[in-house]
């Protein structure tokens, strides 16, 4: 069987050395801020995004070394987004990567500033470590598009708003699915797309290769987020190193809810039976169905 963690290991080790060095910072960075940034960035993560950058560069015939600076930059943006996502004003989480979240460890103000600094440092890093200014500008452009209002941040805003939307507000589960996909493509997928494209660009790929890897990463991002939603129902905090069960707890509808809604709607339509419930939203889980229905319909093979 393919052991994906073994495949990722050399990329993870390479990027962690680079991240450590990139997060030293010079005179002028207050010690508490430096510690908070290093705490968040160097916490044990999978480093999937930098691995995607480096693998995309290799896929285009480039060298891993060409992809280290963009890999560091995307991981900085990712770390900032996790710090801010965990804040009380957003997901209000106290566990991330198996440790207390940055605002629990350092206080909210420092956590916010650590995220802010990381956003700027990502671009500073590309500016400083990509010698060709045209290449640097192109990489910065891809990253900025992914991180901005129509990408990560826009997706996050709509994701937070989704806590107040009920599936029944959509004409059908299929329209709800489209809305959810749009959120996932921006909140989660956009950064993966940037990773693949930045790797391909850094590796000297053609325009076709850059576009093709971008399409791959868009699909990967969607699959990643759907898996994340399912794991929120099926895994424990010990397994994932972060709180689980939070989506249904907040009445946020996710893909498992839609699967449940769609299956029941399909059965109702196929059988014409009146006693199978219609797709109407209600708390918890926001699918219109209780969590036991959702749990059984999201088990693999069920
Ligand atoms: C605050 C602007 C802003 C955006 C937040 C990152 C994000 C958007 C939300 C995090 C919530 C979340 C769990 C989203 C699912 C996708 C995701 C980013 C999961 C975490 O990524 P992993 O599993 O984490 O790659 P590690 O810790 O391995 O790096």
The molecules bound to the chains, other than polymers, are: geranylgeranyl diphosphate
Mean pLDDT: 87
Overall geometry comes to globular
Number of helices: 14
Largest pleated sheet:
2 strands, antiparallel
**Distance from first to last alpha carbon:** 23 Å
Percentage of residues in helical conformation: 55-70%
CATH domain class of the domain at 4-163 and 181-205: Mainly Alpha
Number of strands: 2
**How do the helices and strands follow one another from N- to C-terminus?**
HHHHEEHHHHHHHHHH
Strand order of the largest sheet: 1-2
CATH architecture label of the domain at 4-163 and 181-205: Orthogonal Bundle
Could you list the spans in which at least 5 consecutive residues all have pLDDT below 50?
Answer: 278-302
Q: CATH topology of the domain at 4-163 and 181-205, what is it called?
A: Farnesyl Diphosphate Synthase
Q: In percent, how much strand structure appears in the residues?
A: under 5%
What is the SS-derived class?
A: mainly alpha
Keywords: Isoprene biosynthesis, Magnesium, Metal-binding, Transferase
Region (Disordered): 271-295
Protein name: Polyprenyl synthetase family protein
Cofactor: Mg(2+)
Question: Which secondary structure elements does this structure contain, and how are they paired or packed?
Answer:
Layout: H1 4-22, H2 31-42, H3 48-59, H4 68-85, E1 95-96, E2 99-100, H5 102-106, H6 108-129, H7 133-147, H8 152-161, H9 173-202, H10 207-234, H11 237-240, H12 246-249, H13 255-271, H14 291-298
Antiparallel strand pairs: 1-2
Helix pairs in contact: 1-3, 1-4, 2-6, 3-4, 3-9, 4-6, 4-9, 6-7, 7-9, 8-9, 9-10, 9-13, 13-14
The site of geranylgeranyl diphosphate has 15 residues, from helix 4, helix 8, helix 9 and helix 10.
């Amino acid at each position: 069987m393919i052991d994906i963690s073994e495949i990722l290991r050399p990329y993870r080790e390479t990027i962690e050395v680079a991240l450590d060095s990139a997060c030293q910072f010079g005179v002028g960075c207050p010690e508490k801020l430096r510690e908070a940034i290093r705490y968040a960035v160097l916490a044990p993560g999978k480093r999937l995004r930098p691995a995607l950058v480096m693998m995309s560069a290799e896929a285009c015939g480039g060298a891993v070394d060409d992809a280290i600076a963009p890999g560091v930059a995307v991981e900085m943006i990712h770390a900032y987004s996790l710090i801010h996502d965990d804040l009380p004003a957003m997901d209000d989480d106290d566990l991330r990567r198996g440790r207390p979240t940055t605002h629990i460890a350092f206080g909210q103000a420092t956590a916010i500033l650590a995220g802010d600094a990381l956003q700027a440092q990502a671009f500073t890093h590309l500016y400083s470590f990509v010698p060709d200014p045209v290449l640097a500008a192109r990489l910065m452009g891809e990253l900025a598009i992914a991180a901005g209002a129509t990408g990560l941040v826009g997706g996050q805003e709509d994701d937070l708003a989704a806590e107040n939307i009920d599936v029944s507000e959509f004409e059908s589960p299929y329209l709800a699915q489209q809305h959810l996909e749009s959120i996932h493509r921006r909140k989660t997928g956009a950064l993966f797309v940037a990773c693949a494209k930045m790797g391909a660009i850094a590796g000297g790929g053609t325009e076709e290769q850059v576009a093709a890897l971008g399409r791959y990463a868009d699909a990967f991002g969607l699959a990643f987020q759907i898996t994340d939603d399912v794991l929120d129902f099926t895994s424990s905090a010990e397994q994932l190193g972060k709180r689980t069960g939070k989506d249904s707890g907040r009445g946020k509808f996710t893909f498992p809810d839609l699967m449940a809604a769609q299956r029941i709607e399909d059965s109702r339509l196929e059988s014409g039976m009146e006693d199978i419930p219609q797709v109407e939203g209600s708390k918890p889980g926001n699918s219109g169905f209780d969590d036991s229905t959702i749990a059984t319909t999201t088990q693999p093979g069920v």
